[in-house]
Amino acid sequence: xxxxxxxxxxxxxxxxxxxxxxxxxxxxxxxxxxxxxxxxxxxxxxxxxxxxxxxxxxxxxxxxxxxxxxxxxxxxxxxxxxxxxxxxxxxxxxxxxxxxxxxxxxxxxxxxxxxxxxxxxxxxxxxxxxxxxxxxxxxxxxxxxxxxxxxxxxxxxxxxxxxxxxxxxxxxxxxxxxxxxxxxxxxxxxxxxxxxxxxxxxxxxxxxxxxxx
Amino acid sequence: xxxxxxxxxxxxxxxxxxxxxxxxxxxxxxxxxxxxxxxxxxxxxxxxxxxxxxxxxxxxxxxxxxxxxxxxxxxxxxxxxxxxxxxxxxxxxxxxxxxxxxxxxxxxxxxxxxxxxxxxxxxxxxxxxxxxxxxxxxxxxxxxxxxxxxxxxxxxxxxxxxxxxxxxxxxxxxxxxxxxxxxxxxxxxxxxxxxxxxxxxxxxxxxxxxxxxxxxxxxxxxxxxxxxxxxxxxxxxxxxxxxxxxxxxxxxxxxxxxxxxxxxxxxxxxxxxxxxxxxxxxxxxxxxxxxxxxxxxxxxxxxxxxxxxxxxxxxxxxxxxxxxxxxxx
Lengths: 213, 329
Description:
The structure holds two protein chains of two kinds.
Chain A: H1 17-24, H2 37-43, E1 71-80, H3 83-93, H4 98-105, H5 112-129, E2 139-148, E3 152-158, E4 162-168, E5 170-179, H6 193-205
Antiparallel strand pairs in A: 1-5, 2-5, 3-4
Helix pairs in contact in A: 1-2, 4-5
Chain B: H1 2-6, H2 42-47, H3 67-77, H4 116-122, H5 130-142, H6 148-167, H7 173-179, H8 182-189, E1 196-217, E2 224-241, E3 247-250, E4 256-266, E5 276-281
Antiparallel strand pairs in B: 1-2, 2-3, 2-4, 4-5
Helix pairs in contact in B: 6-7
């Protein structure tokens, strides 16, 4: 234990006093670490410009124009979970209607899926209350992605006086709900045989022989 | 089920072919089992990991905690509360409310000037009313050039300028503050923050009239505010677009008759005080404005608490009004 070097982290900004003390009492063993976990998390709350998208006012539309679909941007910072596993879940709900997404997420086996579900429900409420969406089921998930947040490093013992690092990962989850029906394909669909043939033909016909008679 | 798992070796994978349709996931896909083949040393393996109290950042956020909860948490940790050192000056630039609001007579604006009743209504001068007359005299003592006739013209201009400034208030905040007091600023802009308002003043149906005047002091006796209520009977058109540019109320070409009682306020004891729109009096007998086309779910009624204070609603008692969404623009 005494061989292990000190872990110190820089304090940036002004964290809340509670979060500082929270972190200082986090390690029950006698190992010394700097107590600034709280500082890390209060600084890193994810992309702050995401919520600003809810405040942009579009100019009035002309009478003949198709009505612009309403949308709401919502996020939750510091959801605990493995980044790579969470990425799969974020991709999973993309392009689904809100009801379908909520149904599917309740049967997923990961802990952070409950958090994602809560975020979707909050976003749905926001859409109805603040963004003027009339029917709460008339929403689909246009954008759903994650970004890395601060991580906490823990330790584990290995054989022969060696130590290993365990990372407890936190991520920020962003979602944008849009009013209306989702498109048929959110991800690029695999082209059918006919389409592939046409593409090949076009490529062949576009060939140009340079320096010829 | 348990016997199956006890006989498995680490090299075995349990793969159940799953039919994953687009709508329903019928069977769970399981890959390798995350379980050590020898359960005898489970506790020792668990003891290798140094336990950490991980903060649950999604449950209770610092800014969402009530002050009592924050206090009890800090007490647990042995922390003293932070001492605030901010000293901010504040300046009273408008009185918070209306002094003895004018009660408009019922049937106002419906009688023509040719009938007996209508003529009587027209002749109700502010000069004949005692308190209002005294208030006007008080205003004149601070402002020599003040006459009701000139004031009425200025009031119309201020009213028009205020509404025009409201249309562009996101880009030009200071302009609206020039024509509107801080109390009215909040009431006008709160719901219009993420909307586009298109307002047009067409004409005055009858000349604007001063119907009420009061003065009152705030905090100290020599800090006087004057409030004058003007009756406007005009033709206006209003169209409101939501954040996405979709029309949600009114129409650009629809002209409506509007009868309003607007309270203007001035800080008369201040050298740079000016008349500004302060409040609009909506009488009980006024019919409700047109409901918005959008539908919404009726919010569930809050449980009745014994000591619940009465909410001050801008539009008076809601029990008499129909259960319909009213645009509060």
